[in-house]
Amino acid sequence: MSFKRIISKIWDFLWREDSLASWLVNLVLAFVIVKFVIYPLLGFFLATSHPIVAVVSSSMEHQTNFDEWWRSQSDWYENYGFSKTEAKKWPFKNGFNKGDIMILRGKKPKNIMLGDVIVFRGNSNDPIIHRMIKKDINEGRYFFQTKGDNPLTNPDSFEALGEVDIPQENVIGTAVFRIPYLGWVKIFFVDILSKIGVKGLK
Questions:
Q1: What element of type H or E holds 10?
Q2: Is the pTM higher than 0.90?
Q3: How far is residue 53's CA from residue 178's CA, in Å, rounded to a whole number?
Q4: What percent of the chain has pLDDT over 90?
Q5: C-alpha separations of 188 from 59, 120, 159 in Å
Q6: 57 vs 144: CA distance, rounded Å
Q7: What stretches of 47-195 show up as alpha helix (H) in DSSP?
């Protein structure tokens, strides 16, 4: 069989054949292309190892509009030197929800501003996405402190999650764009795998 005929058969199988086998192969190919081509390319252009993340907790959700949220939280944030006027300029000032997709971009530590939403590695193996509320520099290295916007899920004790003195090398990226709800696909998929005993996928 000639090479041209082999290519033609493969093409027909992938794009014209209406069978379960063809559908499964296409699914695997799509995963491979996204995982090993598109994702690394996005990471290269956005300067981060994790250009796309799914939000898997409600720690950044707001149950009210910004004014009501600020009214309930103002004392805490004002103790850290934030005013309502400054907070209104924060990226994602109204928070975001579990199940959202966030697009990240790598930034130099000096360019990460107070109020930015960052993804970092805390005390657990899973990346955390919270708002940066404090920034220090010590011997040329930057250290950050973060807090989730949702007062119902984020206590004032930050040590448990490792949100105090986050070294610059633990910061994965800064959130720059939000896609609502699309992350639920990953959440449902991971939940199913967890229920059947597949571990380590988060």
A1: helix 3-15
A2: no
A3: 10
A4: 59
A5: 18, 23, 30
A6: 21
A7: 66-79, 84-87, 184-195
